[in-house]
Structure formats: structure tokens, C-alpha cells
């Protein structure tokens, strides 16, 4: 009888159960994506690290995915927006080095330092608004804090207008929703380009202190610049890579601390640091779960598995930090006192996260300010009742209902 591949669950109902199941099958196992596309899910720390550093693994569908090159992947495929881009995220080899060098000029340590006061101001602005909640009122902390802080920060870094921010928020949300229809996916790509062309034109007329201005003026040592398409797609890459990841990081860190008072007490008492919280959250709850797509330029040999040339690959980031081979049988337990918090949640190799230091800065300022301002913060539902995002790409919740202050005790009559 023909053996069917596991189908990745587009509803994201239980990412960790799916991940454990896939890891138990081996370092890499074929899975089915929307549209019946088969890809290899790579599920162990060892194999992911090997693969991310492998020069014969690429992110360029245009150059290395035969099914895409031959037109077997329809332009309205549900996941097309992850692969049909022209930016450093999908570039390979020398091309990637060139694009990353140009974009890297906008991600200097100086910019990270310079943005810190802005992060503090944005954080305080959001916390001030939360102060208006009634005592014991339930608020959605994802909508009111975890989402807007990174979204506003990345929009600021890019130098966006209010209109561009609103349009972009919709696009990013739709992009990580793996239940999106082909028509919606098409609208995502076409509708957004107009807004970005306008943004770039505006920065040419009125340069600012922002990444778009840096990108518009950046020149490589040979004098080359980003093309118009590369510019738009690079801004898209920064938005996508920077906002949704950080939003889900906040969601997961706050959830982990609020569902384990002993862990929270470790931070409050100063026995654990916010850096411990950041790395332990990234290890146990990688914001990126299954990242599409990479391709094998030649046959790739992992321990006991061969990924044939031309096959697509997903990195199962959610599986890496929880790998028992690295962190033992309790790898899935959130434990700030764990000495070794090794994870690959910022990636590894040539595509390592360009915004990692900005992410660490916003995480530290955001979390420390939130827990300082609301010492009575608590989850308003059981952790098991939180509803996961409908996607296998991201790891987070649809909403994060909390109480900022203790409920007022009912009057005794
Ligand atoms: C907790 C927050 C974040 C996490 C977990 C995260 C994670 C990652 C990961 C795993 C990759 C590599 C993807 C791959 O396998 O190819 C990546 C790449 C990238 N990230 Fe982040 N990221 C975060 C925040 C940010 C922020 C705040 C920015 C920018 C403002 C950013 C910008 C980028 C860019 C531009 C890339 C592409 C690098 C390349 O392809 O060469 N990230 N990120």
C-alpha cells in the first residue's frame, strides 16, 4: 500500500505535538503542504544546523526549484508570497552576499542604540493606554501590546506613513495565515507594491533617518545599488521578518511567565535576567515554526536520510530548541535556570537574523516595562484555552486575554 506523507496542519492546532511526531520520524521527513506540494521537514538540531550552513541549500525558487521553474507551481499557489520575492531572503550565493551587504548598512549597532529611546517611548505610550482599563478588566494583551509594539517599531524603522502602516498590517497578517485563499494571496502581492512605490518615491524626495532612506542611498563597493524591485521586496522582507516574529515572541514570553509563577518570581527577584527569559522563550517557543522554503542544489545527505536534488525543504524551527538529543527529556519545559539554552531561533549561517540585536532590545525594554508597570498581571484563562494562530509557519495565539490588575472582590451582602 502507498504510504502517504503527513499533511502539515494549516490550522496550527498543536504545533509542538506535530513537531514531536515529525522529529520521531527522523532528521528529515517528507510532508505535504497546501496544494499537495511535497517538501522535506527538517526536525532535529543537528540536521537543521548542518542544513542552514550548507552551501548547496538555497532559498531561490527561481534558480533551484525545478517545479517552480517548469511552471508546475501555479501563480495562485497559497504559499506563493513566500517564494516569489526578489530580496535577500530568497537570494543565493553571491547575490545574497551583495544584497545582505547593502541592507546590512541599515542594521548597524549605532542604529540599534539610536532606536532604544524610541522603543521606550512606544512602550510607555502603549502601557499608558492600558492604564485606562478598569480594575480586573480582561484585555487582549496581544492586540494591545504584543502586536502594536513591534509593528509600530518596524514601521518606524522603515519610515512609514500612517496609511502605509495600516495597509501593511493587513498584508502581514494574511501572509502568515496558511488558510488564505489563492485569490487573497494574489491580492497580497499586487495591492502592496503600489503603496511601497509611493513610500520609496517619498524618501527620494524627502530623505529621513530610516532604513528606506538608507536602502535608497546604499551603494556597494562597486557602486551598485538596489534595483526598484529589490528595494520594494527588501522592505517587505524586513517587515515580514521583523514584525510577526517579534509579536509572537512577546505573546510566548508573556504566556510562559504568567503560566508559571515560580519562573516569574525568578525574574522579579533578580535571580534570572531578561536575557534568560528571551533565550528560554526562543528555545521552547520559537516564533517561527515551519519556515518555507529552501531547495537542495545537489543531493543532501543528512544522517541516514538523503534529500534529492531539487526537492523543497522546510526548516522546522519549532523542533530545534525542544530536541531531546540536545536538551534532554525535559527539553519542552520552560526553565530559566537551565544553563544551556542553545537554540537556532534567530537562524544560523548566511541568513542569520539581521535584526537580532534590535529584537533583543525591544524584548528587554518591552517585557521589563510591562511587568514593572503591572505587577499583578495574570492570564484571564487557562493556558490550554488560548487559541493557536491558524498557521504552521508561526507559533503564537489569536489572542492573549489577561487581567492587568487583580479583580475587585465581590461585595459581601
Ligand atoms: C524575536 C524576534 C525575531 C526572530 C525570532 C527572528 C528570526 C529570524 C530567523 C529565524 C531568520 C532566518 C530565516 C531563515 O531561515 O532564512 C531571520 C532572518 C531575518 N530577520 Fe529576524 N527575527 C526576529 C526579529 C527581527 C527584527 C526585529 C528584524 C528587523 C527589524 C528582523 C529582520 C530579519 C531579516 C532582514 C532577515 C533576513 C536575513 C537574510 O535572509 O539574510 N528580524 N529572522
UniProtKB/TrEMBL annotation:
Which PROSITE patterns has this protein been placed in? CYTOCHROME_P450
Pfam families, per the entry = p450 (PF00067)
User: Which UniProt keywords are listed?
Assistant: Heme, Iron, Metal-binding, Monooxygenase, Oxidoreductase
Any one GO molecular function term:
monooxygenase activity
**Superkingdom, natural source:** Bacteria
Q: Which SUPFAM superfamilies match?
A: Cytochrome P450 (SSF48264)
Which family is annotated?
Belongs to the cytochrome P450 family.
* The protein's name: Cytochrome P450
According to its UniProt entry, this protein's organism is Planobispora takensis
Lineage of origin: Bacteria, Bacillati, Actinomycetota, Actinomycetes, Streptosporangiales
